[in-house]
Amino acid sequence: MQRTTAIIASFVGVWLGMAPVMAQSVADVARRSREESKKKKATIVITDDMLKPAAKTKSDVIDAGRKAPGESSLSLQEKSYYDQIYALYGRMLLLTEEFKKTYWQEKVATMRYILAELVKAQKIMDNLEEQARKDGIKPGIIRKAKDDVEKKLREDGRITR
Q1: Does the model's pTM come out above 0.85?
Q2: Do 71 and 138 reside in the same domain of the chain?
Q3: Which of 17, 145, 148, 149 is positioned for an S-S bond with 90, CB 3.0–4.6 A?
Q4: What is the tens place of the pLDDT at every residue in 4-14?
Q5: Do 25 and 71 belong to one domain?
Q6: Mind listing the pLDDT tens digit for each residue in 90-130?
Q7: In a domain, 31, yes or no
Q8: CA angle 49, 117, 133 (to 5 degrees)
Q9: Domain limits for position 119
Q10: With DSSP H G I counted as helix, E B as strand and the rest as coil, what are the percentages for the chain, rounded to 5?
Q11: Rounded distance, CA 153 to CA 151, Å?
Q12: Quick check: is 149 in a domain?
């Protein structure tokens, strides 16, 4: 009997102890949450430099004066696709290189921005390659454009392996 009374008493005590927690209004919880968030400080300071696109300076712009493979044998349409893929893939490589640098510096906001830019560029690249395929552009031209820009950026020291 004493055992049952002790169990019931402890249960009632726990339940009564939880009553103030259960009686909190939504406004009280929101107020307390707002006060806690004011106490927290920002872990990262976002500067204007972080918000600028990674490949916007003149030194990062891909050389537009390069020669396409067998340039005399390419049609105007093939040359156009070669140039577009060359520039876009070069931008993607430079963004990837910039992402690697910011990863080691643990710049989270910059990494998110670069990653978003990479996703946009990849979507554009996918659409461009699909359109080139539909227009009858040889896959070798697309591969050559990617290989050429990668080789040039490696030679210039702007990307690493």
Answers
A1: no
A2: yes
A3: 149
A4: 555 565 555 55
A5: no
A6: 999 999 998 888 888 878 888 889 999 999 999 999 999 99
A7: yes
A8: 150
A9: 48-155
A10: 75, 0, 25
A11: 6
A12: yes
